[in-house]
Every structure is written in structure tokens, then in C-alpha cells.
Amino acid sequence: MVYFLDFDSSKLPEEEAEVVICGSGIGGLTTAIVLKELGVDPLLLTRGVGNTYYSQGGIACALHPHDSPYLHALDTQRAGRGLCKEDTLRILVDEGIQRLADLRRWGVSFDPETTIEGGHSFPRVYKVKDYTGRAIYEALWKRVRELGIEVLMGELQEILGEDRVEGILYYDGSLKFIRTSVLVLATGGAASMFLHTSNPVRVRGDALGIALRKGLTLLNPEFVQFHPTVVKNTSILISEAVRGEGALLLNSKGERFVDELQPRDVVARAIYRQIIEGGEVFLDLRPLKNKGIDLKERFPTIYHMLRDLGYNPKEQPIPITPAAHYYIGGVEVKSYGETTFEGLYAVGECACTGVHGANRLASNSLLEGVVFGHRTAYKVFHQLSTLKKAKTKIFRNKREGKGKPPYTFEDLRRLMWETCGLERREESLEEGLQRLTNWLQSWKNWEPNVENRQLFDISLTAMATFSCALWRKESRGVHYRKDYPYEREEYRRDSEYRLEAHLML
Length: 505
Ligand SMILES: Cc1cc2nc3c(=O)[nH]c(=O)nc-3n(C[C@H](O)[C@H](O)[C@H](O)COP(=O)(O)OP(=O)(O)OC[C@H]3O[C@@H](n4cnc5c(N)ncnc54)[C@H](O)[C@@H]3O)c2cc1C
Prior knowledge:
Elements: E1 7-8, E2 14-16, E3 19-22, H1 26-37, E4 42-46, H2 51-54, E5 59-60, H3 69-80, H4 86-105, E6 125-126, H5 132-147, E7 150-153, E8 155-160, E9 167-171, E10 175-179, E11 183-185, H6 206-213, E12 218-219, E13 224-231, H7 240-244, E14 248-251, H8 264-276, E15 281-284, H9 287-290, H10 295-298, H11 300-308, E16 318-327, E17 330-332, E18 344-346, E19 351-352, H12 365-384, E20 396-397, H13 409-419, H14 426-440, H15 450-471, E21 496-497, H16 501-504
Parallel strand pairs: 2-10, 3-4, 3-11, 4-7, 11-18, 17-19
Antiparallel strand pairs: 1-20, 5-6, 8-9, 9-10, 12-17, 12-21, 13-16, 14-15, 15-16
Helix pairs in contact: 1-5, 1-12, 3-4, 4-12, 6-15, 13-14, 14-15
The protein binds flavin-adenine dinucleotide (FAD).
């Protein structure tokens, strides 16, 4: 276990909480609401809106009489390329039905009609126009307020305790200490560590680095899903549904170069090829009009976001890039969010329940957040009665250091994009990993402040991604190795990453 910051808890403002939940996306909000409804007083710590808010498509659930959880599981397994965990997948598809009812009970008004998305064999995606995530986020947030759940705006810095959770440090302009025996990480993914990403800045993957420093294992961190169409130089995503309705992809010559309805990774790589060969790629939404679709009516969020950026999608093709979108790997958890560290749980995108395998089926991640958030709350509720009180009185870590990291977050993002992106190869992965290792070598001399802590922890997550991308000498799901373009039976298993001791010395 390694702390980054220099601190003495006896000199910090202190408070106590039964349970701290870190993150206010669908995973964290669900856990908080269910715990509160069970009579527990959780404290919600967050640095602001995450991916949930920006979700456009919807949430998958097999409710229709002609559909079934079994079919939903089959579709998910097909996408997951042999790596979906059967027990958690069954939970996901079975319990989705109850959890969708919870979302409705908490105030989400889904559209009456469902849609179909890539990889699903049935129209089982529940949506609220093209702003499902925002609708869910707002309803859950309202419920949090109604229930009087305490919310702190701040950033998790350290998890305290040698062999179990005994507290946390967070930063909200100054460092503060919370004594607690339970921490639920609901901190989202890490796709923002790539130069091009659809993720907002508050979701950075640093909490995965904090978990690594606690000795936790990350599973499958090499599986990063890239979305084909994010508006160039922004993190604004244009949903696949637009291509489903007839939007076309054009290269610099104005020509089509790929079947727009192929799977996400195939389309993303085709676009990437055009770009690295010096071209540009555009998404042309004008054909929607010929099909009698009013863009503004059918895709109001996308339309208004594009207008705000100065584009008129009814008249001009939009420049786009593929971008890192979803982090499939995460902290190894059991089916109730339990990690291997006592008192520490993880839910949502930061956790790896194994339901997605090597590729996430569209609209399964909001579902994962609400299903496993609910289960985690129940497990925490039961465990509270047996948890021992924290034994350590004061937590200290002495660190000096006046140095600056030899790189910035932007440097890291560029490195990830160039050497560990859509097309991976042994030499470039090794080169990228070596560069990152060199950067990290001086970490003990870095000034122990919160900015450097964040960069350090994101870099640990990046290290996990590199290491497992190198280890997986095959192409499977979203992990594409140009030098090993096929699946290989010996790799039909999860990759695991724990912090290597030499890094910390
Ligand atoms: C543009 C976009 C569209 C998407 N569309 C869909 C879709 O249609 N359907 C679907 O199923 N999925 C979709 N996804 C994926 C889905 O949104 C996410 O997987 C899901 O919302 C993750 O929820 P979460 O609760 O795990 O984390 P998030 O919603 O990402 O929330 C993470 C929270 O953790 C907080 N946090 C992080 N680190 C710290 C820290 N150190 N200290 C304090 N707080 C911290 C953040 O502030 C935030 O509150 C989409 C994602 C994006 C980006």
C-alpha cells in the first residue's frame, strides 16, 4: 500500500460517515438511494457529472413478451467474444426488469416505444429521446435531494487503512478527512486518458489508480471501446442511431469508404485509417431529410449541440474522429460489488463484473450501473452490522519532494492514442510503456500535491492498460492487435493487473 500525499489526519478537519459513496453517476446514485431507503445514512462525494449524464442511446432490458433475458444474454455474449461471466451476466439480464421499475418509480419517464441498437436482436432499448442519461441523472439526483442524502463536492485522494477501509481523504479546496469503514467506488471509467474521447473531464480514471495503490486487481484494462463518431476537437458524441437512420460517412473526397452499419469497432478503425493516411472524415446527416426525418425533432440534443458548436447539420457534413468511449475493464468485483479489500466496493464503469466480456453491447452499461448499484447497497447494508470500528487513530504519510512530473496529462493522452489506441502492435506498445515507465520513475520527487496525485493515479491506470494490451497477443472484441489479427484460444481468459512493486520503490 502506497500513499501519494503528505498528510497527518490529526491536523485535518474530520467527520465520520457510515458509508461513503464516491461518484454521482448511475452506479453511485443508485447505491446511495437504495441504502438510504434501507435506513442507512450514506455520504455522497463527487466532483460533478460523469458519463451517465451524457448517455444518449438508452438502457437495455428484455421486457417485451416476445423478448427474453435469455436472448439478451445471448446477444451480450456474442459481443463479448467468449469472455462474459455467466453468473453476473445472468444477474444483469434478469434483474434489469426490477431495476427498470425502480428507475420509473424514481421518476424516469421512458418513451413508450423501445428501439433496437447494434448487436441487439430485439428492440429492447428504453430511451428518453436522445437524452436518456440526462433524464436518469436528473430523476436520481432529485430523489437524492428528496431523501436528504448528504452530498459533498470534492475529489477522492487517498483510501486510508492497512488491511481494510478506515477512512478517506478528499480535497475540496483543502484536504479533509472522513472516518468510515465502507467506501463504494462509483467513479466511472478511464477512456478520457486518450487524446480523443467522448468522456467528460471529470471522469478521469484516477480512482482506479488509487485502487491499484491499495493492492487491488484490475481486470481486462486493455479492452477500451472506441466510438466511431465524436465531433472533431470536442468530446461530443453523435449516436449510432443517426447512422441507423441514414447518415453517411464521407472521406476528404466526399466519398463513402465503409458500410456505416458495420459493428462499432470496424467502422471506428476504418475512420482511423482514413485519418492516419492524412485525410479527414465527415458525418453527413443531410440524407435523413430524404427519409422524412426531422433531425431537430428526432435528435434534439445532437442537433442543438452541433448548432452550439457553429455547425448546421442540415446543410453541412460534420468533421468527426473516432474516440475512446468506454473502459470495459475495472476493479475486480464479485456479484455484490465486493472487492478483495475489506470495506471497499466498486460499481458501474470503474468495476469489472465481467458482464461485457471483450466488448460492451450498446446500452448495457447504464443497466449494469443500476443493477449492481442496487445489489451493492444491499450487501453493504448487511455488512454494516458486522463491521468492526476503525482501529487506527491517526493516519500519517511523510513525503517531501519539490519536483514536477516530466510530462502533462495531455502528453499522456497523446501517448495513449498513438501507441495504445485503435490499432496496437508489439513495438508501439512497448515503446509507449517504456516512455510511461520513464516518466514515472521520478515520482517520489514530485511535489505531493493534488494535481500531481491525479496525474500519478491516471498514469497507473494507463500502465495497467499498456501492460495487458501487450500481454494479450491476439485480437478479441475491442482489442485489436495488428500483429495478431485473430482470436487465439489460449487468451480466452481475463487479463489481470496488479501494481508492480518495482514501480513504487
Ligand atoms: C457520450 C456517452 C454516451 C453514452 N451512451 C450510453 C448509452 O446510451 N447507454 C449506456 O448504457 N451507456 C452509455 N454510455 C456509457 C455510460 O454512460 C457509462 O458507462 C455509465 O454512465 C457509467 O456510470 P457510472 O455511474 O459508473 O459513472 P459516471 O456516470 O461516469 O460517473 C462517475 C462519477 O465519479 C466521479 N468521480 C470520478 N473520479 C472521482 C474522484 N477521484 N473523486 C470524486 N469523484 C470522482 C465523477 O465526478 C462522476 O460523478 C455512454 C457514455 C458516454 C460518454
